[in-house]
Amino acid sequence: MTAPAETALDIEAIRADFPLLAHEVNGHPLAYLDSGATSQKPQAVIDAEVAFLTNTNSAVHRGAHTLAAEATDLFEDARSTVAGFVGAADDELVWTSGATAGINLLAYSIGNATLGRGGEAARRFALRPGDTIVTTESEHHANLIPWQELAARTGATLRHIPVLDDGRLDMDAAATLVDDSTRILAFTHVSNVLGIINPVEDLIALAQRVGALTVLDACQSAPHVALDLPALGVDFAVFSGHKMLGPYGIGGLYGRSELLNALPPFLTGGSMITTVTLDHADYLPAPQRFEAGTQPVSQAVALAAAVDYLTGLGMPAVHAHEVMLEKRMREGLRPIPGIRLLGDTDLAPRVGLASFVVDGVHAHDVGQFLDAQGVAVRVGHHCAQPLHRRFGVTASVRASASVYTSTEDVDRMIDAVSGVRAFFGVTS
């Protein structure tokens, strides 16, 4: 099974760009299938961060000396590069430490607006008892718990769009749940357990019909599909650098500029103000109003290098390669006795990710068995306990691909899984 010739990538050349992939694990070549948790980094990304720390290290937006000016230029150039990757304007991208921080920033800023902070412009965000926040049953905890907390602080009610047996969202239920009381609709672009790409356009249409804000978790889509967030029509979106070939400790919050500038800030301190007295402060426009304190400067520069790397490959080609791998995973796992794939449907588009359970063997034991053969996968509930509960399991095994994943990696995983039940003596 091969990718279409017009979109095929030179996987061997790509793999040579990722130094960690040359390692052996337990005496076997590494087959890294845990990219949904964190991706490996190409040498270009590593070099970009080292080069900044070696040659330009300085605080940004604070100094008049040469190093400070150079660091600031690199920092803001990185913002422009990453913003352009998702179709945003420079002032629509807020640096965060990751997607979790971005969603919490939104939730707490909306909570501050509910308390009356931000003045007249922020009133549009205020929540009150009787209002509803809608998420889905397939959310990562990072796009669920902040909304639980916001509902508890404001008296709003949390609702959840259910998941069908095949893993798709129940859009008939969604049309009922998103009603005139709905103020926020927060949902994942791609399920981190199922790999299913959710119908963003349909969900946005439901929200726009009732004037609700939309918040998109793009962690599992930004590395794998071409994104144009303004064209999608979402109001806010978040993504994490370490899942898209970039470093840890950096992510992005996208927001339409008029919304970001109307939101009151969450974190306060230096670098996000215009004037401060002992009793009052005035805040900078977005994105700086949400970037208090020391910023992840070297990480931003490295994330821009990761974006340049993906852009150079071409996101359509990246997606085509990973779709091919996803089909290979499911087609290889389905015939193995005792294997149950979660969300095994061809009725929705997907990325290169599949989760499964092995009858009679705990997911953690499966993971250890595969690791002994050099195959790295994720095991557990993947920070999505409600979704696992929906499918009647407490944990699953997740194999997730990236641009550097080869067909050999997938085939080694499938071969290893085929021997799990016999190894643990499970025959029924």
TrEMBL record:
Every Aminotransferase class V domain range: 32-412
Keyword terms: Pyridoxal phosphate, Transferase
Co-factor(s): pyridoxal 5'-phosphate
Entries under PROSITE patterns matching the protein: AA_TRANSFER_CLASS_5
Enzyme Commission numbers on file: 2.8.1.7
Main function: Catalyzes the removal of elemental sulfur and selenium atoms from L-cysteine, L-cystine, L-selenocysteine, and L-selenocystine to produce L-alanine.
Similarity field: Belongs to the class-V pyridoxal-phosphate-dependent aminotransferase family. Csd subfamily.
Protein name, as recorded: Cysteine desulfurase
